[in-house]
Every structure is written in structure tokens, then in C-alpha cells.
């Protein structure tokens, strides 16, 4: 009987379930969408029950397409949207909707939180709290929704809730724990002193494990709902950024990735925890023990192009067609710039009130210019992040593109030109799901460690995108305009919110 591994990615707008064999070949994949609720300006919520229904649907689709039964799945693990909070009561039922990473309700409390955190940001957290992170959200809730806060018995990240629904056990792992901003990224433990300073209860935080450790087994009830086999082992998994890095084989120091999914990240693997004194970038735990990820976790990525396509252009053109259209427009979009801050921003500017701006429009500009400027805005923002990494002497030797942008010809060329590095890519199409499946394989003993799993299941594409020197020059000249444009309008943001 064949044996397979399952990786479930609980994203911001959809969940995907991937089934691979032990050589990394895709057997089947399922997908189910859900929406974001915005009950008030700057709030962003989702219903955990909708997640669970989507997960069940995607599992069923993946097994049907793969032609496998639940008994053939050796292990399951997860990737998931990071930072957001699911809060359960003593009966393990949600006390409120999930408050996700895009939520900005705690922005007015950030100065107070940071002041109370003080030296812990440098000595333990290696980051500063931002809106949308669990520590900020729960502090806001303590102040503004005390009756709800008092009912909380457990808090967890998104994927950990799905793990709980499958195996009945509550726990988390290092990558998502670090992203709560309540965890010592430096020393792998909950920062209890922070809880004391913020007057937040200590008992609500889940036990923390390594990403590939076993969380539990599929329960009889979950098996009945999903078609999985009771007793199938479940590994904890990882936050989506770290799962995607793992799924692309980016686990060694010096590897860097440009990931453009719903949001976007520029991330480098390091063999020691690195702290940015100005706290512009983040340092997280990697799935590999003793490795960290130095990351610019920006809030805006492919979502801006999705917004442009569906809300503004209202076109049926595919993203591949828009990519081709942008490719016919010259580098620099003939002087059109885009500040991509449709969801505020975390890195390189911790500015939750930031908004998007098109600047330089003229009668000569056409749809292709707007599309290209939108794509370039994401990369200009990431180039600002790269400058921070370089100033900190973070080693970068090889760039691997990931996310939806890894599939766009123009996207990859803009990356190569803007970041002035050859752009490599893997043959993996669903990096976060694949990374989750790798962690499942390590957890159940198919592979001895993550490195062996990556070697067994990941191959590189033979297509490498080299920088075009003339475009590199153009973008280097235009980077300062992008930089200055942000600071020119920054003081206006509070006046329009």
C-alpha cells in the first residue's frame, strides 16, 4: 500500500490541502475559500467554524483527487496565517470571532504596550508589538472588552485551532509562538515577565513544541467529519512564512527568499538570533532548531494586485494576462509610482494608518502602467527592507522566489532587477502546504530531519532570471523617489482616517 503525507495551509482567504508521496510528488490538492469580516473600520475578523468547514472540504477534495483513503495518510501537519488570535473558553468554544493579522484595532494601544515591554523587546522578544499580533489584540481586549477577556481560557494561532479540531489537544510550536509577540524568540519560552508588566493572565498560553513534534492523533469524531483515519498522527506545523521557507528548502544560513502571496516578505535564514535596534524588521524562530528567520513581514503583497483586478479594473483577465501586460510596459512604468499600503504597513515603516497612493499619473498612462506600477510598488517596499538587512550585515547568497509571484514572468524579472540578484525558484507549486507535509514526514519518522526531507522532496527549476543591468540602474534611481514619497505623505495619513 502506498503511503502519503498531508499538508494543510490555513491562509487568509482560503485553505489548501496537499497530499504528496514520500518523494515529494503531488498526488492531490483541494481548496476552499472564505471571507474576512470588517464589522468596524480597521477591524478584521474571521469565523473559526468557517475555517473548519473549509478544511473539511479541502481534505475531501484532496483525497478524492489523489484517489487515496484516510488509511493511506501517514501523517498530517499545518501551515497557517500568522499573528492572529483564536480565543476559547473553558469549554473550548470560541469566545469571539478570530481576530486576524490584518486587524488594526489595537493601534491606539501600541505606544503603551511598547512602553511597558521596554527592554524585553531587545532582550527576549527581538521584535516590537504591532497591531494584529496576539499580544496587542489581547491587551486591547482586556482594556475594551473585559467581559470577553475574562471568559478566555486558551489563546492560540489559526492553524493551532485546526490542529485542536482534528486531535482534541491544545498546543503550539516555536514559529507561531514567536509571532504572538508574547514569546522569547531568543530563548524559546513564553515571556512571563511581559505578562506581568501587561497584567495579562499566564495560564491562557499553550504549551510550546518543535514544529515537527507530534501534537496528537485524529479523533474518531474528526475522522467521521473529514474522512481521515482515526489515530493518524498530527505534527504541530509552522506559521505560513516558515512553512513556505521549509517547502522551498530555504533552511540554511545565507538563503533569502522574496515571497509574494497575499502579503509579502523578504526573509533570510540566520544561525543566530539577530536584533534590529530600530525594530524595523522581525526575527522569528525557524522550523529548524537553532535557526532563525530575519524577516520583513509586510502587510501588502499580491493582495494589492487582486484589489486592482477585482475592485478597480473589474476585469476577467487572469493574473498571468495582467503579468504579460505589465511586461510590455517599461521598467519604472513611465514615472508612475504606487505606495502599496492598502492594509497599513508593518515593515519597513510601522505605520498602521498608512494608505495606498498612486503618484505621477498623466494622460499618457494606460492600464499596463497601472498594473506594472502596482507590482513595482510591492518590490520598492521590499527593496527598502533589503537595505535594512544589508545595513545589519545579514548574509544573503542565494535568492529564491516563492508565492504567486514566483509564477509570473514579469514579477520575477522585477524582483531580479529591483533586488539586483539572480532569481531562482523551485518546482514546488504550493510551498506552504509542501512545508507542512515535510514537517508531518519528519514527525512520523519518514525522514530523520528537515534537511533530509527537503533533499528528498524538493527540486530546483532550471530557469534562472538574471537582472537586466539597464533596469537595475533605473530602479536604483527611482528607489529614492519612492522613499521620499512615503515621507512626504506620512503626516497626512492621520488626517484622512
UniProtKB/TrEMBL annotation:
Stretches assigned to the Carbohydrate kinase FGGY C-terminal domain: 258-442
Domain Carbohydrate kinase FGGY N-terminal residues, every copy: 4-247
Family: Belongs to the FGGY kinase family.
Superkingdom field: Bacteria
Entries under NCBIfam families matching the protein: XylB
Class in the EC hierarchy, top level: transferase
Leader sequence segment: none
Catalytic function, reaction form: D-xylulose + ATP = D-xylulose 5-phosphate + ADP + H(+)
EC number: 2.7.1.17
InterPro entries attached to this UniProt entry: ATPase_NBD, Carb_kinase_FGGY, Carb_kinase_FGGY_CS, FGGY_C, FGGY_Carb_Kinase, FGGY_N, Xylulokinase
One Pfam family cited in the UniProt record for this chain: FGGY_C
Keyword entries, A-Z: ATP-binding, Carbohydrate metabolism, Kinase, Nucleotide-binding, Transferase, Xylose metabolism
GO MF term (any one): ATP binding
Protein name from the UniProt record: Xylulose kinase
Keyword Methyltransferase: no
PROSITE patterns with a match to the protein in the record: FGGY_KINASES_2 (PS00445)
GO biological process entries: D-xylose metabolic process; xylulose metabolic process
Amino acid at each position: 500500500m502506498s503511503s502519503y503525507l498531508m499538508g494543510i495551509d490555513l491562509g487568509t482567504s482560503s485553505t489548501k490541502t496537499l497530499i504528496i508521496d514520500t518523494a515529494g510528488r503531488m498526488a492531490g490538492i483541494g481548496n476552499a475559500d472564505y471571507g474576512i469580516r470588517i464589522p468596524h473600520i480597521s477591524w478584521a475578523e474571521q469565523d473559526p467554524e468557517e475555517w473548519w468547514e473549509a478544511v473539511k472540504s479541502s481534505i475531501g477534495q484532496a483525497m478524492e483527487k489523489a484517489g487515496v483513503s484516510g488509511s493511506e495518510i501517514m501523517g498530517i501537519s499545518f501551515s497557517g496565517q500568522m499573528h492572529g488570535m483564536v480565543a476559547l473558553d473553558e469549554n473550548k468554544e470560541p469566545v469571539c470571532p478570530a481576530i486576524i493579522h490584518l486587524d488594526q484595532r489595537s493601534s491606539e494601544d501600541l505606544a503603551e504596550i511598547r512602553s511597558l515591554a521596554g527592554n524585553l523587546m531587545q532582550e527576549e522578544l527581538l521584535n516590537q508589538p504591532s497591531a494584529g499580533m496576539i499580544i496587542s489584540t489581547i491587551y486591547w481586549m482586556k482594556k475594551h472588552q473585559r467581559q470577553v477577556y475574562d471568559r478566555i481560557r486558551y489563546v492560540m494561532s489559526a492553524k493551532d485551532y485546526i490542529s485542536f479540531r482534528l486531535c482534541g489537544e491544545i498546543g503550539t510550536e516555536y514559529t507561531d509562538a514567536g509571532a504572538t509577540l508574547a514569546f522569547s524568540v531568543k530563548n524559546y519560552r513564553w515571556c512571563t515577565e511581559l505578562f506581568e508588566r501587561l497584567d495579562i493572565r499566564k495560564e491562557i498560553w499553550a504549551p510550546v513544541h518543535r514544529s515537527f513534534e507530534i501534537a496528537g492523533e485524529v479523533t474518531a469524531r474528526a475522522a467521521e467529519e473529514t474522512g481521515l483515519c482515526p489515530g493518524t498522527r498530527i505534527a504541530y506545523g509552522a506559521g505560513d512564512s516558515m512553512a513556505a521557507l521549509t517547502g522551498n528548502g530555504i533552511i540554511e544560513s545565507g538563503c533569502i527568499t522574496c515571497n509574494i502571496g497575499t502579503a509579502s516578505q523578504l526573509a533570510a535564514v540566520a544561525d543566530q538570533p539577530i536584533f534590529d535596534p530600530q525594530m524595523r524588521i522581525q526575527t522569528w524562530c525557524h522550523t529548524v532548531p537553532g535557526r532563525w528567520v530575519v524577516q520583513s513581514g509586510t502587510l501588502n503583497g499580491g493582495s494589492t494586485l487582486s484589489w486592482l483586478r477585482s475592485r478597480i479594473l473589474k476585469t476577467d483577465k487572469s493574473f498571468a494576462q495582467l503579468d504579460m501586460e505589465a511586461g510590455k510596459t517599461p521598467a519604472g512604468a513611465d514615472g508612475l509610482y504606487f505606495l502599496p499600503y492598502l492594509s497599513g504597513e508593518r515593515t519597513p515603516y510601522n505605520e498602521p494608518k498608512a494608505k495606498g497612493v498612486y503618484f505621477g499619473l498623466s494622460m499618457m498612462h494606460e492600464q499596463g502602467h497601472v498594473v506594472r506600477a502596482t507590482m513595482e510598488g510591492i518590490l520598492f517596499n521590499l527593496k527598502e527592507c533589503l537595505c535594512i538587512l544589508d545595513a545589519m550585515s545579514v548574509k544573503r547568497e542565494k535568492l529564491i522566489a516563492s508565492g504567486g509571484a514566483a509564477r509570473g514572468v514579469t514579477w520575477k524579472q522585477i524582483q531580479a532587477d529591483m533586488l539586483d540578484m539572480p532569481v531562482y525558484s523551485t518546482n514546488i507549486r504550493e510551498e506552504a502546504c509542501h512545508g507542512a507535509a515535510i514537517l508531518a514526514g519528519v514527525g512520523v519518522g519518514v525522514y530523520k530531519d528537515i534537511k533530509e526531507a527537503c533533499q528528498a522532496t524538493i527540486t530546483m527549476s532550471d530557469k534562472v532570471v538574471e537582472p537586466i543591468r539597464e533596469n537595475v540602474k533605473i530602479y536604483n534611481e527611482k528607489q529614492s523617489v519612492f522613499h521620499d514619497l512615503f515621507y512626504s505623505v506620512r503626516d497626512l495619513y492621520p488626517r484622512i482616517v
